[in-house]
Amino acid sequence: MASSRKVGFFGLFAVVAVSGVGTVVLLSGSGLGSTAKLAKSISAAKKVGLPLEISDLDIRPVPEEKNAAHIYRLLSSSFSKSQKEHSLIDTASQRDAGPKDIQAADRALPKISSRIALLMQVERYPECNFNRDWSLGSKLMFPELGYMKQSVTDLCYQADYDDRHHDLATARRELAIASRIAVHAGSDPILIGMLVEISARQIVNREITSMIRRHSSDPSGLARLETDLQQQAAFPQMRRYLAGEVVEGLRTIQTASSMRDLSFPSDSPAWQDAILRSSFVKTVFEGKFIDAWTQTWAKLPSHAEDWDGYSKPLKDMETAISADRSPDNLMNQVLLPVFSESTNQLGILLARHRLLLASTELLQIRARTGNLPKHLPSSLGELAIDPFDGDRLQYRRKGKGFVLYSVGSDRIDDGGVPRDPRSSRTMGFDEVVVIP
Question: Which residues pair with 127 in a beta bridge?
């Protein structure tokens, strides 16, 4: 939450304390008709299909015998006991890891063997539902997600170890379970769940990349890895996760009883909490929140697969909310994060998926003919298309191997410069696969 927004919020409460709660409404031109205005906002929202109630969310019931949620809760309780081992595995999983890093992580694996064994049980549970209480609003927490992402890293490193010791079958099984854990992270219809799922799936893809390099001259291994890629779960549907942001945002407005609920300091004056609890103030904020989302929801793409079509309407909403300095918009500025950047993560996931599948195809051509093709073969179809610019993926032979890349989310061809995993830069690199 930006400090300028906190100042604005405190300023609003200062005015209200002197002039009365009605100041919030009068400053925005709403007057005493705020309840009627909210009713109109709700009516308009329903016409465009905007989810407003918990029952509108896509939360699928899962039978207990198929639900993996209990495993992730068990993992959460034991995580702190093996933080050193997790750190070593994280370091060894990076692209620039050296031999000493790998040796240290290999020695750490036996110390988390019980955790790996527990993770392997996810194979028996195809689905996940944490049965969360979505009525909690801002008090709703998602503590399992961080542990699930670390679990994917641990399991992928175990797979890497097994593959290095010539057990591709076990490594593939471990990767399949890691992929399932990643998808389970996105079971909650909320943006943080989608982003953790994407991040975890990219960790799996990073390990598959290593295995493709390791088996680049093994047609049988390449065919198996290609099958694994083809069987990966469908990509996250952005609309499902935005629905959760809308519903939880509304519940936060409706249930917030103190400034602490909005991540403000816990020692905020009591009069500020009293104003936040005012049903009149809540009505004004709720109407403004619904209006912003209604306008945006109507502009979202009709096809769920059109990930890039979400960027502009979400960016337009962010710009409008940032520019609107009216008092009744202040809650929107507190609640709404930057959604538009999330769509790029979907594009990167799709690009990486195509790069890996195309790489296995190219290597299998080399195994059959003895040479790599001069150009990407037409048989690749859409796998050869860069999801960011619609052109063909960039490909060049290099020695006996090749460089294959997408221009990435900045949509600028940087010549195949790979992403630095330790850098926070968002430009100046491409999404690259290099096969030596």
Answer: 67
Q: Is the CB of residue 431 less than 8 Å from the CB of residue 415? A: no
Q: Cβ of 220: how many Cβ atoms within 10 Å?
A: 10
For helices 168-185 and 219-230, the axis angle rounded to 10 degrees is 20
User: Are residues 365 and 373 in contact, defined by beta-carbon separation less than 8 angstroms?
Assistant: yes
Distance CA 310, CA 341 (A): 10
Reference 181, options 208, 152, 204; nearest CA is: 152
Q: How far apart are CA 237 and CA 239, in angstroms?
A: 6
At 339 the pLDDT is: 82
**Is the model more confident about 275 or about 87?**
87
Position 423 scores a pLDDT of 67
- Residue 29 pLDDT more than 70? no
Contact 360, 332 (CB under 8 A): no
Question: In the numeric block, which tokens belong to residue 238?
Answer: 């952005």
Asked if pLDDT for residue 330 goes beyond 90, the answer is no
Residue 368 Ramachandran class (φ > 0 left, ψ -120 to 50 alpha, else beta)? alpha
C-alpha distances out from residue 329 to 12, 82, 251, 315, Å: 11, 45, 17, 17
| Average pLDDT over all residues of the chain | 89
Pick from 193, 208, 226, 215: nearest CA to 345: 193
> Which are the contacts of 64, defined by CB distance < 8 A and separation ≥ 6?
none
Three-class DSSP category at 268 = coil
Strand order in the sheet with 394-398: 394-398, 401-406, 431-435
Taking alpha carbons only, the member of 173, 59, 73 closest to residue 124 is: 173
Give the single-character DSSP code of 32: G
Alpha helix stretches (DSSP H) within 324-425: 330-335, 340-369
Q: Of the given ranges (42-56, 180-194, 277-291, 359-373), which has the lowest mean pLDDT?
A: 277-291
Distances (CA, A) of 223 to 105, 363, 390: 29, 10, 27
DSSP 8-state secondary structure symbol assigned to residue 432: E
Q: Whose CA is closest to 410, among 386, 377, 436, 433? A: 386
